[in-house]
């Protein structure tokens, strides 16, 4: 046996020192036809030659070997398929329905029965497949979604993966929690959420009450109350020292309203004497200036800018009024509305953008609907086509958006297959590049016009109290501070009344009487020149009490029985009475 040598199927047969000598092996790449890429020997390991001319053992590099080709003539190592073969194709389901073909459109050749898919979702999917690091052949399989209730819908469409009839799903399929129990979703590739679209109506510029619309009700009420409060504060501060704020009670009440509201046009002619009053008026005039300027700007905008107002402002109004609402056929949105307490009889199904427009144009009372509730991608397409007639209202109810779907347990993929993360990574690369923007603009347009119109809508809102609460706070604090200083001074001057033994009621009566009484020494600004001179003469030439009584301006020197008329100081003299007196004399 030791001397026997021969070449067998696995190499040379030779026993040395009682051991069979190992043979060299050639490494083959078999894709259709075999192709050698290197050799393996026990002495040298993997090398490009069976007996390499090298003294270094196991020193071969991958670049020294032949290229390894995978199915699809790709040099990248496949990740998604367990058994990649050229005959295995990814069975991708695409929905077939009657409308909204901007996302998915399926055409079948009548002769060859070949299925061709197009639309936004399909273009994004094919771009993602091209970005994958390995080749994934795809076969589109149509899945009809008929119109109407109690018929196959998108949930049934996704369940085709769970049953093993499909390997993946591409289309306007929203990522939902109940669907993710049986299938894997890729990352979303659209904006998410469900929203409401309603018609808009033109603002009536010929409305006789349009001058009230620039300001909301609560701001009107707050402004009116502030005018009355400021007028009352000025009256309290000026009553004792300014004759303009004295007199009969009806005159004083009229002065409160007149003085405060005249600041609107800065037309008040009454002079104020108290420094506290001047401080309050300075602050209040600034507030009035801001209010009038804002009101003028808002009214000008309403009269010159085209006003578009939504017919409905909230879904709760639709429920309360029993209005009809439209949804897309086969969509899960109808179930969401049921959970929001919408009656089933108040929900109508539509399948095309034209049907949406027709239903909203008719209105809820004429066989149409008052609003359409759908996912944001569909609403964006609808507004791009009819942006001058409709607008979005209310909150956006968040969802996860559209995503590609693959099976967790189907035959094509094992649980935890890396195909889904690979698709998500490739999808991120597509969405972050200009490719996604190019696809979006190609199918849906840029929508700049609608964005500008929405901006005009927001800019023409009525003025609210929240925008001016700071101004009213400053004016209120200023007036209250002035009143506090005034009453502290008044109580200090009336300390004798407070220290008296009168009852509380008597003290209040005495304080009120002291407040209503005119001060003995009014300020010079409230006096006329003759009165001021007379008072000055009295200060320099003191008189006895008898003389004071005789010369008092309030004491009638002559009576009417004596043939003389009584004339108040400063009153004009009647020439006719003087002439009669001279004639009688």
TrEMBL record:
GO MF annotation, one: ligand-gated monoatomic ion channel activity
Compositional bias annotation for Polar residues: 525-538, 544-585
Domain Ionotropic glutamate receptor C-terminal: start-end pairs: 89-446
A cellular component term, taken from the record's GO annotations: membrane
CDD domains (alphabetical): GluR_Plant (cd13686)
Transmembrane segments: 219-237, 249-267, 279-297, 468-492
UniProt keywords, alphabetically: Glycoprotein, Ion channel, Ion transport, Ligand-gated ion channel, Membrane, Receptor, Signal, Transmembrane, Transmembrane helix, Transport
Claim: Glycoprotein is one of the keywords in the record: yes
Compartments where located: Membrane
Membrane topology classification: Multi-pass membrane protein
Region annotation Disordered: where it falls in the sequence: 519-585
InterPro entries: Glu/Gly-bd, Ionotropic_Glu_rcpt, Iontro_rcpt_C
Record text on subunit structure and interactions: May form heteromers.
Family: Belongs to the glutamate-gated ion channel (TC 1.A.10.1) family.
Function statement: Glutamate-gated receptor that probably acts as a non-selective cation channel. May be involved in light-signal transduction and calcium homeostasis via the regulation of calcium influx into cells.
Protein name: Ionotropic glutamate receptor C-terminal domain-containing protein
């Amino acid at each position: 046996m030791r001397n026997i040598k021969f070449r067998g199927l696995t190499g040379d047969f030779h026993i040395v020192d009682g051991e069979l000598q190992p043979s060299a092996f050639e490494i083959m790449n078999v894709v259709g036809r075999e192709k050698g890429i290197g050799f393996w020997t026990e002495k040298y390991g993997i090398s490009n030659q069976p007996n390499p001319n090298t003294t270094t053992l196991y020193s071969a590099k991958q670049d020294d070997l032949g290229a390894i080709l995978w199915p699809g003539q790709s040099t990248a190592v496949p990740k998604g398929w367990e058994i990649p073969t050229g005959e295995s194709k990814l069975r991708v389901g695409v929905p077939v329905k009657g409308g909204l073909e901007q996302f998915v459109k399926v055409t079948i050749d009548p002769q060859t029965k070949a299925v061709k898919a197009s639309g936004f979702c399909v273009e994004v999917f094919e771009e993602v497949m091209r970005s994958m690091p390995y080749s994934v052949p795809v076969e589109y399989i149509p899945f009809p979604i008929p119109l109407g209730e109690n018929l196959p819908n998108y949930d049934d469409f996704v369940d085709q993966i769970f049953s093993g009839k499909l390997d993946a799903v591409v289309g306007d399929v929203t990522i939902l929690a109940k669907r993710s129990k049986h299938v894997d979703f890729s990352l979303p590739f659209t904006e998410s959420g469900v929203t409401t679209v309603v018609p808009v109506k033109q603002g009536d510029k010929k409305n006789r009450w349009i001058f009230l619309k620039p300001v909301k009700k609560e701001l009107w009420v707050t402004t009116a109350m502030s005018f009355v409060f400021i007028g009352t504060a000025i009256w309290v501060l000026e009553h004792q020292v300014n004759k303009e704020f004295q007199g009969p009670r009806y005159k004083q009440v009229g002065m409160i309203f007149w003085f405060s509201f005249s600041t609107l046009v800065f037309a008040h002619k009454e002079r104020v004497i108290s420094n506290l009053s001047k401080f309050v008026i300075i602050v209040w005039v600034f507030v009035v200036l801001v209010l009038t300027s804002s009101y003028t700007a808002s009214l000008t905008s309403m009269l010159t800018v085209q006003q578009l107002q939504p017919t409905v402002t909230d879904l709760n109004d639709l429920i309360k009024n029993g209005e009809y609402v439209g949804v897309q056929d086969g969509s899960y949105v109808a179930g969401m509305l049921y959970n929001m307490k919408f009656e089933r009889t108040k929900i109508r199904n539509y399948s095309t953008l034209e049907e949406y427009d027709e239903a909203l144009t008719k209105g809820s009372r004429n066989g149409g609907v008052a609003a359409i509730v759908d996912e944001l991608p569909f609403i964006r397409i609808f507004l791009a086509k009819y942006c001058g007639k409709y607008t979005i209202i209310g909150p956006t109810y968040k969802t996860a958006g559209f995503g590609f779907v693959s099976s967790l347990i189907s035959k094509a993929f094992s649980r935890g297959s890396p195909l889904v993360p690979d698709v998500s990574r490739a999808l991120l690369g597509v969405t972050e590049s200009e490719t996604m923007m190019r696809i979006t603009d190609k199918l849906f347009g840029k929508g700049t016009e609608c964005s500008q119109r929405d901006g005009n809508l927001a800019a023409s809102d009525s003025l609210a109290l929240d925008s001016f609460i700071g101004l009213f706070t400053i004016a209120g604090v200023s007036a209250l501070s002035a009143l506090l200083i005034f009453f502290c001074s008044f109580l200090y001057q009336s300390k004798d009344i407070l220290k008296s033994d009168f009852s509380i009621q008597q003290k209040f009566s005495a304080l009120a009487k002291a407040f209503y009484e005119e001060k003995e020494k009014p300020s010079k600004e409230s006096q006329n020149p003759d009165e001021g001179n007379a008072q000055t003469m009295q200060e320099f030439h003191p008189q006895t009490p008898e003389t004071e009584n005789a010369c008092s301006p309030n004491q009638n020197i002559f009576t009417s029985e004596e043939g003389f008329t009584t004339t108040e100081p400063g009153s004009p003299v009647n020439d006719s009475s003087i002439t009669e007196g001279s004639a009688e004399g």
